[in-house]
Amino acid sequence: MKKVSSLIIAAISIAILWYFFIKPQDYQIRVIAKSNTGIVNQSLKLWNKTLPKASIRQIEDLTHLEQVIITGDSTHMYKWNIAPITDSTSQLVIDVKDLNHSFANKLTIPFTDTNFEKQARKTVTDFIEKLNTHRKEFKVTFVGEDQLPSTYCACVEHNTVQSKKALGMMESYPFLNSVIVSNGIQLNGVPFIETTNWNMQNDSISFNFCYPIIKTDSLPTIKHLVYKQFTGRKSLKAIYNGNYITSDRAWYTLLDYANQNNIGIVKEPIEFFFNNPNMGGDALRWKAEVFMPLTDQDE
């Protein structure tokens, strides 16, 4: 009996030590989000910008983010873990810890619904509500495989972040339009962006914003304007409807499809735009065709 009692006491002691000093979170919240991994990731970062005293960083990949929110005399850390369920739903597991009052939380949480728990649930609920609102602002329709045509084009190079991609386009529209009109250059299609680098860790991108044109021997040399041959290739395709600020939401739909079906892709998305955002109007009527190139079979 003494041996059994000693084992029980040891097990209880280990459990107490783990609970108070090793367990990483004070509280854990689980919720289903009606969006894929990438959209949840980007929506979290967008929502974080609206909070007065908050910061967020991506850890390792799209599915892990660490957020710090300062509230009163406390600093709350939220570790967001995103696991895909289907192509349009994700399981969110959020580990929450009060960096200033962790021990007190662990002591009281088993016996009462603390203000800390209420605040954590309210924060997660607020995000889910913002995510659901955001989902209504755009539509992504997966199409399948398609062949991108090749074209000659006049381009402006940009280095920015995903959230400012549309701003770069809007700044380049008047410049490209004036060059095209004043030099009698013949257009050969709708404007598009060709992504040349996408850093998914910090959301930075480099891209060419291009007008397809008819190549001639008399194209003018103009500062900041680059002429190039765009080479089309077989790609995964989706249709995006919504404000072009968030057209990158279609990128993640294509990424998920490629991952789920073990399809090799080049993570350099291409977007063709059928509306001029400078003209305004109902953004849900704006259309973009979004492509993710497939890797060559011999690579």
UniProtKB/TrEMBL annotation:
Lineage of producing organism: Bacteria, Pseudomonadati, Bacteroidota, Flavobacteriia, Flavobacteriales
Keyword Transmembrane: yes
InterPro entries: Reg_factor_effector_dom_sf
Keywords assigned by UniProt, alphabetized: Membrane, Transmembrane, Transmembrane helix
UniProt source species: Maribacter ulvicola
UniProt entry tagged with the keyword Membrane: yes
Name of this protein: Effector-binding domain-containing protein
Transmembrane annotation, as ranges: 6-22
